[in-house]
C-alpha cells in the first residue's frame, strides 16, 4: 500500500463513519469599512517604516535615494523616476540586484488595521527577489489600494500569484522577545503614499 | 501496526521524566530570570494588540470551528491540496512517519547533487530530526532563523516553539557568537540590533550561494494549493525565493479549507504569537511561478502520529494548534522550568498534550502531569483548544503505579466505615512523626510529597470537638 493510501485509511478509521460537520460562525468583522489613511500612517510608523505623503512621486524618490542607483520592476512608470538613477529588471543577476542601493516598487494592496503592504509580483512590483536583496525598499502606494482590514485584503488578492505581505522593515523577536529591526530583509522601508491632487 | 510516531528517530521523547528534568532546570536561577523577563514582555505586548480588536472572541470561535471542520474533512482536503499543488507545477509526497519523511527529503536533496541546504525554522522538521538525517547523508543543514542559529551555534536544544533560544539572554547570545561564528567582529556588543546585524552578515553569502532550501508551512490552502510561511526576519523570504529547489515539510493537520479562511488565521496568529498586529513578512506561493522563485517545488505531507491523535475524540483538538506558543507564555509551570524539561520539541501546555498523543502516552507518561490545571492556556489559545480537559483525559490513560490503586481502595474502605475512619483520624496525629510537611514519609508515599506539602493535622477532630461540647 502506498503511504498516501495508508495515511488516508488511517484518517478515515480515526474519524469513523460520518464525522460531525461543524458550522463555521463568521461573526467577526467583514465587508467594507471606511479607510482611515491617518491610521495607516500611524501603524506604518509604529513598526518603523518611514512614510512620505506627497503628490510628487519622483521628487520624493529622488530625495530618498539621492545619487544612489535603484533597481525597478519592468513596468514601473518612468514618470516616477525623473532624475533618479535606475536599472530596470530585464532578467538582472542576483549580484546586480544585491549591489543596488535600493528598489522601487508599486504595491497591490495595503491594510490600515495592521500597517501592512502586500506585493503580488505584478509588472509594477516585479519578481520577489527585487524587493528582497537591496537594503532599501521604496514602495509607492495609491489611496485606492488601501483597505481597512485583513478580510478585505484577502478578498482583493489573487492566491495563484506569489504574495509577500510586508509589515515594517525586517525584524526579529528572538532576543528576549522584543522586536528589533534589521535582520535579513531590507532594513529601510519607505512608503510613498500618493496624495490625491484636486 | 502502531500509528504512533516511531521510536529512535526525531525529538518527541525526552531522556528522563519531566519531574527529574524540571528539578535540574529549577536549580538554574539565570534560566528562570531569562524566561520570566521574556514571557512577561510577550504577555504585555500580546495583550495590548489583542485588546485593539473588538471581535477577538468571534475570530477565536471561527478559528476553532474551521479547525474542527478541517479535521472532519481531512481526507478530501488533503487530496484537493495535492491536486492543486500538482496542477501548479509542484510535486506532492506522503510520509507515514519521521523515517519516511527524512528519506524523502534526503533523496530529493541528493538528486540535486548539492551538499548544503538552507532551512527556515520549522517545527515539523525538528520533530522528525531532519537535520541529523541530512548530516548522516553528508548534507549540511544551515538554520537561518536567528533563534535557531543561536541554538545551532550553541550546540543547544530549542526550548520554545516560537523563540527556540528564549532561555538565552543577550549577553549569553553575544558569547555564543564570539565563540562560534566564523569571521565575527571581536568588538561585538550585546546590543540586540548589533547581534541581529552580526547574523545578517554571517548568513548573507550562504543565502546567495545555496541551491536548495527546506521549509515548514503555517498553512496549506486546499482550495488553491497555496502554501504560506509566516516569519519576521526575511530569512524565510530568502529561502523561499533564492534557491532553485524548495522542499516544504507540512503536518497533515496544517491544511486549511479555503483561501478566504486565511482572513481568520492571519488575524489570530501574529497577535497571539509575537504580539504584533502583523508579523514583518508573510510569503505565499502556489506551486512554481516561471521566472520567479524556485523552479522545482516539493511538498511532503507528514503523518508521524497525527492520525493516532485524530483517533482520540477528546485529544484530537490538540491538532488544531497553529503553533503560536501563547500557551507557553502564560503557563506558570513553563515559566519556571523552561522548555528543555519537557523533553520534546513541543514544550509547554500544548506539548504536554501533543507529545504523549503523538508517541503513545506510555512514552511520555509524566507530561500530562506537568501542569497545575490552572486553565490560563485555554484562555490564551487563539483557537480555543481546551488543554486542561485533554490533560485530565490523558492522566486517566497514563499508567498508574499499583500502590496508588491500593491506597485509594484502602481510603475508600476506611471512609465507608465510621469507626475505622475515627481511628484513622486519631492516627493522623501521629503523622508528626513523619517530619515537617510530610518530608519523612516512607516510600512509595515520599514520591507524592516530593512536590507537595502534607497538611498539618488539626489538634482536635470535629468528632472529638462534638463529643466534648
TrEMBL record, chain A:
InterPro entries: FTHF_cligase-like_sf, LUD_dom, NagB/RpiA_transferase-like. SUPFAM superfamilies: NagB/RpiA/CoA transferase-like. Gene3D superfamilies: NagB/RpiA/CoA transferase-like (3.40.50.10420). Residues 95-194 form the LUD domain. This is LUD domain-containing protein. It comes from Paractinoplanes lichenicola.
Automatic annotation (TrEMBL), chain B:
Residues 78-288 form the LUD domain. The keyword Iron-sulfur applies. InterPro entries: 4Fe4S_Fe-S-bd, 4Fe4S_Fe_S_CS, FTHF_cligase-like_sf, Helical_ferredxn, LUD_dom, LutB/LldF, LutB_C, NagB/RpiA_transferase-like. Keywords: 4Fe-4S, Electron transport, Iron, Iron-sulfur, Metal-binding, Repeat, Transport. The keyword Cell division does not apply. SUPFAM superfamilies: 4Fe-4S ferredoxins, NagB/RpiA/CoA transferase-like. It holds the Pfam family LUD_dom. It comes from the Bacteria. Residues 396-468 form the Lactate utilization protein B C-terminal domain. Residues 318-385 form the 4Fe-4S ferredoxin-type domain. Residues 433-469 are annotated as: Disordered. PANTHER family: LACTATE UTILIZATION PROTEIN B (PTHR47153:SF2). NCBIfam families: LutB/LldF family L-lactate oxidation iron-sulfur protein. This is Iron-sulfur cluster-binding protein. It comes from Paractinoplanes lichenicola.
